[in-house]
Amino acid sequence: MENKYFKTKNISYILLALLFLISFLLIPQKIYSDDDGEDEIINGFISAIESTNENTILSITDNNGVIYDIIITSDTVLGLDNAVGERWIDRFSNDINESIKRLNDQQNMLSPITILHHSKYAHSITTKNSENLKTNLNYLFIVFALAWLSFFGYLIYLSRRLLNIKEEIKLLKSK
Amino acid sequence: MKITKLNFINIFIIFTGIIVVIDMWMIFVWVPTEINQGAIQRILYLHVPVAWGSMAAICIVAFSSIMYLYKKAEKWDRIALSAAESGAIFGAMMLLSGMLWARPVWGVFWTGEAKLTFSLILFILFIAYLMFRAYFPKGIQQKRISAVIGIIGAIDTPIIYFAANLWERAHPPLIAGPAATSDSFISQNIILTLLFSVVTFTLVLSSLIFLRYTLRKNEDEIDLIIINKT
């Protein structure tokens, strides 16, 4: 019993030591990043998207006409709404082609974009998150439900009437 | 002979049903979601084919009406009536699906632009034709006048087709046919699904017309039996 207690105590010491070690490894990085200045925000429209083999550069024009060139990194997070308010969130590196396609759409729609960057390296690129985040599936459901109800309703109505009329013909002929 | 014809209709309806299931699978599972409009764009796989169906129906009405006036054969009048009834349902679905698509995309259910107005006129023409058939006393006069209404109604079809190009407004431009704009680009999956839906709804329209035609023929038979008996 005592031996077991001793073992647990040892493990906790080891864990504590590891925690300290990790903290020491992380803290200098944090200090370094704080020294380099704070994250900045740019609001504007995408005026150009330039893709090279090394990186993708986004040109943003703000309300005063100032153009900023922002570099998209593999860790840049995108949160973009489409025309009907469906939001798409992903990391740039997960699907580069899709990300560029989505950014091109934002450029074509002249959507206001907010970029959080650090020394021109983008952390996040977002459009205004629509208040109405509906996917409009209710409209889709209503349209298809109405269509098939009316088509099948009419089909059933015609089939029943046809059967009744056939019976009526039989009766009339037999009389 | 009658049994063979009925079987043909049944087989045709079952075949149409199978095609409808495949079409629904393509619309909701196979085709990818369009990037700008999202899921709501799938309404267009129904809206475009029913719009095509309603225009095809009025053309069938007009052609059959011309044939009726020329040949005086009852079958042409039956085809015209059957196409008008089915066309009215397709017309109603064209307007409803368009309105329910427009609400989230345009922000309004309806705009007064030419394409939409002429589509509404087409639906009203179908209703006018059917109302005339329902309320005017039965006979040759009724069939002749309704044939004329049907022929006049078909004039609306080319106007609807070219309206998006003639009066450019909110309605998307044409993507297929002789008046389609050359710079319109659609992915292959989307265009394939759209074309398959057009074929599917053409089959649905044909099934409804076939069934309504058979019903009308039987109704005429009853009239004939009653006349003969009296």
Q: Find the biggest chain interface.
A: A-B, 34 and 37 residues
- H/E series of chain B: HHHHHHH
* Helix/sheet category of chain A: alpha+beta
> What is the CATH architecture assignment of the largest domain in chain A?
Beta Barrel
Strand content of chain A: 25-35%
Query: What is the CA-atom radius of gyration of chain A, in angstroms?
Result: 32 Å
> Which regions of chain B have little confidence, pLDDT < 50, spanning 5+ residues?
none
Number of domains in the coordinates of chain A? 3
- Global shape of chain B: globular
Helix and strand content put the structural class of chain B at mainly alpha
Q: What profile does the largest beta sheet of chain B have?
A: none
How much of the sequence of chain B is in beta strands? Answer: under 5%
Question: How many beta-strand elements of chain B?
Answer: 0
CATH class annotation of the largest domain in chain A: Mainly Beta
What does this protein structure show overall?
The complex is a heterodimer of chains A (175) and B (230). With 175 residues, chain A is an alpha+beta fold. The relative contact order of chain A is 0.11. Chain A folds into three domains: 1-36; 40-127, OB fold (Dihydrolipoamide Acetyltransferase, E2P) (Beta Barrel); 136-175. Chain A has a five-stranded mixed beta barrel with strand order 1-2-3-6-5. The longest helix of chain A is centred in the last third of the chain and has 38 residues, at 137-174. Chain A has helices at residues 2-35, 96-108, 137-174; strands spanning 40-51, 56-61, 67-81, 87-91, 113-118, 121-127. Chain A starts with a helix and ends with a helix. Residues 28-35 of chain A have low confidence and may be disordered. Helix content of chain B is 78%, strand content 0%. Chain B has seven helices and no strands. Chain B is mainly alpha-helical and 230 residues long. The interface between A and B is large, with 34 and 37 residues.
